[in-house]
Amino acid sequence: MKLLVISDLHWAGPGEQQRRGIPSEPPIHPILRTAERVWRESIWLRDPFAHNDKLNQIIALNPSVDWVIASGDYTIDSAFVGLLDEAACESAELCLKTLRTAYGERVLAVAGDHEIGKHSLFGGRGGPRLESWKRIAFRLQLEGVWRKDFGRYAVIGVPSSLVSLPVFESELIPAERPLWEAERRQVLEQITRHFASVESGQRLLLLCHDPTALPFLYELPEVARAVDRGGLEATVIGHLHSPFIFGLARLLAGVPRISWAGSTIRRHTAALNQARLWQRFGLVFCPAPTGIELFKDGGWLTADLDTEGKEPIRWTRHRLDW
Q1: SS3 of residue 64 by DSSP
Q2: What is the pLDDT of residues 141-163, one digit of tens each?
Q3: Structural domains of the chain, with CATH
Q4: What per-residue string of b and e applies to 81-108 under the rule 16 or more CB within 10 Å gives b?
Q5: From residue 194, how far is each of 154, 156, 157, 220, 222 by CA, in Å?
Q6: Tens of pLDDT along 175-220?
Q7: pTM for the whole thing?
């Protein structure tokens, strides 16, 4: 069985295209403004609204795969509140429509952090919104937690932002916090049931957009059992966009948490503090189609999966030049 794996497509629909060139932060100190400009234009991505063509290129190069696995972030999220913003929701809908038009019902997808919302780089705008979480189901037609079996393989998809909700706690609207916590409990219960239902001898493939969620998953006894006993063959992640950023995150694993430099730094260092645990999950990193501006090192993955489970999955990373 041939799988196509893609992540961090960040489609820009008509509504979000109208925000091109609008500052992503409210007025900030000139030094921070300079730092933001250098980061966005020289390192991360100069024009995030200019890359819708990358998905069509990947589709054209992969016309006959058996299944498509999509690891989240289908929208630019230019208002930083996820799908609650109608323009961002439109982008995600158009992105998934493009995939479903090409591959029909052979698309398996999870939500990323940008579908739910999060603070902007310096924390001046946005955050998770409960309505955005609800729109994942009734606007994008995506399940929060799901399982799909391919012969001896069980593929489980999870919403990483719900699993790692404690990391986003300072970004939540206070009145929504109890409702978020209730949603998270349901998600963890569903994940527990899916892992508990895996038969002896089956191999597991986990799809989790943001590796920040992995230490929280490991707190669930059924997940820890699968990880420690070798039942989990691989975990596909995205979120980090670039092989360089992924390598840097692994290098910085275990750094102390920084709580005084704003919500974004606090969230990132909290994730890196627990990153040594990531390797127990057999990480397979899927880059964004663009990678980052500095290296233009993006692409996609394909996987050859033996449904009888006699051979491990063979992963291939493909580079997309631009």
Answers
A1: coil
A2: 999 999 999 999 999 999 999 99
A3: 2-319 (3.60.21)
A4: bbbbbebbbbbbbbbbebbeebbeeebb
A5: 9, 8, 10, 12, 9
A6: 999 999 999 999 999 999 999 999 988 999 999 999 999 999 999 9
A7: 0.94
